[in-house]
Amino acid sequence: MDRAKMAEAESLETAAEHERILREIESTDTACIGPTLRSVYDGEEHGRFMEKLETRIRNHDREIEKMCNFHYQGFVDSITELLKVRGEAQKLKNQVTDTNRKLQHEGKELVIAMEELKQCRLQQRNISATVDKLMLCLPVLEMYSKLRDQMKTKRHYPALKTLEHLEHTYLPQVSHYRFCKVMVDNIPKLREEIKDVSMSDLKDFLESIRKHSDKIGETAMKQAQQQRNLDNIVLQQPRIGSKRKSKKDAYIIFDTEIESTSPKSEQDSGILDVEDEEDDEEVPGAQDLVDFSPVYRCLHIYTVLGARETFENYYRKQRRKQARLVLQPPSNMHETLDGYRKYFNQIVGFFVVEDHILHTTQGLVNRAYIDELWEMALSKTIAALRTHSSYCSDPNLVLDLKNLIVLFADTLQVYGFPVNQLFDMLLEIRDQYSETLLKKWAGIFRNILDSDNYSPIPVTSEEMYKKMAGQFPFQDIELEKQPFPKKFPFSEFVPKVYNQIKEFIYACLKFSEDLHLSSTEVDDMIRKSTNLLLTRTLSNSLQNVIKRKNIGLTELVQIIINTTHLEKSCKYLEEFITNITNVLPETVHTTKLYGTTTFKDARHAAEEEIYTNLNQKIDQFLQLADYDWMSGDLDNKASDYLVDLIAFLRSTFAVFTHLPGKVAQTACMSACKHLATSLMQLLLEAEVRQLTLGALQQFNLDVRECEQFARSGPVPGFQEDTLQLAFIDLRQLASADTAK
């Protein structure tokens, strides 16, 4: 029972489901009927569903048939109307076709024109687009063309700027074009090319600077010399050691700034051509000779490229090498002043360039680098000067070298380089200069003494007298009262030697100029050098003359007279030095002149030589003595040799009138004693074993002749019978022998 109810319930549910599906089929679009049918197939009542479906179809067919039967007459009428319409439609179709044909025929040209218009519009649109694209590309191409032109004309720094604009401003706007990609790929190569070419220009500049350093230095030193001359004109007074030289702190700095974009700077070597200037023309500034734009350009280029440090290291390394070459002096530098001048010019030129680079660039070189180079240069320069100056034997060359070194130091001092060591070295050269002066003056004194006639200077007019008095400080009231012609007591070598001593002092003074020495230091230097001249050079020259074998008594007497007057002139030399140095002799630590000692020593040597010479002359006469100790004959007169000897002594002592009294007296006494001793030796010599009375009487006559000579007073100043005492022993011996 329950089972039957359950079956009946299921049947109802199935029937309801089938009804739902049928409604969906009727109401659903054909394209979406698939899911509905699938639900039928998923179920188990296919047969029953088909039955229901057939039933529903038959129902619909019956409804359609009923509807058709109801509307059949209307359908027939409609068909009839349609047939009528078809004929009209055919006519309309024919008219439309004919009209279309006519329209096609008539519009064919229009269509062609429209096609042409279409093509023109397309071309116009393409052209407009092309123009727009070209407007974007043209600045790129123009910049690239400008870049190539700048590269071609070697304007590398502007080219680098152009390259920067091209890369960062223009190329990004057209980066999708193939030619732009080619440009982008070439940019690193162009940078390297600019870098290499600018470095090549720098190398050319450095090489040219190395070759022309002497010209740059010469110009700088000329400028310094001009400034010094102007300073001296402003001072309007000679600087001879009274004050330290007042030197301006700085000369006009030759600082002509050269723009990095100078028109000529693209292909130049760094040196401008300058004709040789005349002395009266304005000397151009040292930097006017140099175009530094290659350095500036290369520095800017490497800075922009981020390689500034590389550039700085390269520049400093190359300049150090050049400095070593510049500081290497030529082997024959000491032979001429031009050798030293060229050496100094190169050094000055080198540091003028470096100083300009220091002040016109930011960090390419720094003060520490410059100071290091200068320390090296200073040590090498001083060493070279010490070596080469030691070969100089010409005082004029040494003096010119000193002036050149002073100008060299002053020029570099303008640029801030310390030069104290150079002035210290000049003090060393000063000693060498003094030695060369002494050697030169030794020759001068030798020539003066050799050419002198050793005779008093005769003057025949007042003009000659005043001229000689102006050459040598001599005053003698008695001589002034004498009528012309008259004679000065000294020979010509006195004023010549005196004036040469003054010339020597002037020469010493010339070396002390511009050495930044105090007046006391200059005075001390001159006095010490003059003392060396007097005590060594002049003294040796006088001694050599005095010791000559062929020197005569007249010459010796004149030398004594001359040295006496030169000794008196020493005080005038003191005054002369005081006047030119403005340092009083009473100043503490002032060196005194030793001229008095020099002339005294020379005079004493001449006196000794006179004594010796007189004795030698007496010996020569005595060699003529020919006593026959066994002869009995008596001539009743003194021997001929003795008469000649006495005559010689009288004439000789007559020359001694201008000698100091003691010198003449000593010479006379020495001669008489030597004569007495020599005669006694003749009488007492071992070979005389016996003698006759006649021979003794003859010898006694000779002794009397000697005594007579002593009594005659050949030299004034002896007390009565003083000179005869020289012969007293001989008289006693002769009297004793005669008495026997």
Automatic annotation (TrEMBL):
<feature type="region of interest" description="Disordered">
    <location>
        <begin position="260"/>
        <end position="280"/>
    </location>
</feature>
<feature type="domain" description="Exocyst complex component EXOC6/Sec15 N-terminal">
    <location>
        <begin position="52"/>
        <end position="221"/>
    </location>
</feature>
<keyword id="KW-0268">Exocytosis</keyword>
<dbReference type="InterPro" id="IPR046361">
    <property type="entry name" value="EXOC6/Sec15_C"/>
</dbReference>
<dbReference type="InterPro" id="IPR042044">
    <property type="entry name" value="EXOC6PINT-1/Sec15/Tip20_C_dom2"/>
</dbReference>
<dbReference type="InterPro" id="IPR007225">
    <property type="entry name" value="EXOC6/Sec15"/>
</dbReference>
<comment type="function">
    <text>Component of the exocyst complex involved in the docking of exocytic vesicles with fusion sites on the plasma membrane.</text>
</comment>
<dbReference type="InterPro" id="IPR048359">
    <property type="entry name" value="EXOC6_Sec15_N"/>
</dbReference>
<dbReference type="Pfam" id="PF20651">
    <property type="entry name" value="EXOC6_Sec15_N"/>
</dbReference>
<comment type="similarity">
    <text>Belongs to the SEC15 family.</text>
</comment>
<dbReference type="Pfam" id="PF04091">
    <property type="entry name" value="Sec15_C"/>
</dbReference>
<dbReference type="InterPro" id="IPR042045">
    <property type="entry name" value="EXOC6/Sec15_C_dom1"/>
</dbReference>
<protein>
    <recommendedName>
        <fullName>Exocyst complex component</fullName>
    </recommendedName>
</protein>
<keyword id="KW-0175">Coiled coil</keyword>
<keyword id="KW-0813">Transport</keyword>
<feature type="domain" description="Exocyst complex subunit EXOC6/Sec15 C-terminal">
    <location>
        <begin position="421"/>
        <end position="734"/>
    </location>
</feature>
<feature type="coiled-coil region">
    <location>
        <begin position="82"/>
        <end position="109"/>
    </location>
</feature>
